[in-house]
Amino acid sequence: MLPERILVLVPHPDDEALLASGVISRAVSEEKQLWTAIATNGDYLCGDYTKGSRRLAESLAAMSYLGLPKERVLFLGYPDTGMEPEASFLSGLLRETDLENLHTSCASRMTYGITGGKPDFHMEQTGCHGWYHRKGFEEDMDRLMKMVKPQLVITTSRYDIHGDHSALSHFTEQALMRYVLSGYEKPLLWEGLVHSPAGDCRWPVPDGEDSDFTLPDGMEHLPDFLSSWEQRIRIPVLEDDRQAGRKRTAIQMYASALKDEEPEVVRYLLSFAKREELFFEIPYEVTASASCIP
User: Fold this and answer.
1) Which of 40, 118, 145, 170 is found 20 to 30 A from 72 (Cα to Cα)?
2) What SUPFAM superfamilies does the record tag this protein with (predicted)?
């Protein structure tokens, strides 16, 4: 069902648990080689490293609970500057035509990881932090692909209404094209939906851990998504994990995302704990124009 080498690549700390806790646990139990990589630190509106470090530490703890060692959890270390496309950091990079134009956040101008703990990926790979610009981000994506050598990449959906989520979909596809152009075997690309155009109140339906994902109302304006629904990839959560509520427990380890247990936020996040995880395979053409870095 799953190939030997898998990369779960997500925008923020907690997205890996929402989309793929079941896949991660299954891969660990089947002794697959799986990595998670988190593009931003989730440090929205924080003027220092405290929030980002805390959220990354929550990811480490949740992944450890699922059996993934910290060496397989990678922090790209870029900022979270908002949800709307005009505010989103990754959307801003995607629109950027000057590859070395510096984008800043409240917290930093350079990548960072957990203060006093696990460093960011750029630091691990090069010995220094990386600047917040498109060239640096794309180079980190290229380093990531060549290090992991994935046969399958799981990321967020191009239909997601969070700017970071949809932009990461495009950056991932471009990075895979460059990876294949460098002579590597073409990986599969699966996408999962976190923030649906139908609204967080409609997706996922909060109908319990013994339920499947259902197509929400409010997606009629997305015919491509609707047509792909019948070809959706449904990965069952392991029975032991489902009985033990392991995905629910993993999600609950992200205290920052739960926002002091606001009922609507908790309902939304825990609604991802179902008996399956849902993905859509994205076919992509490999063309020379995918290379954005000279």
Assistant:
1) 170
2) LmbE-like
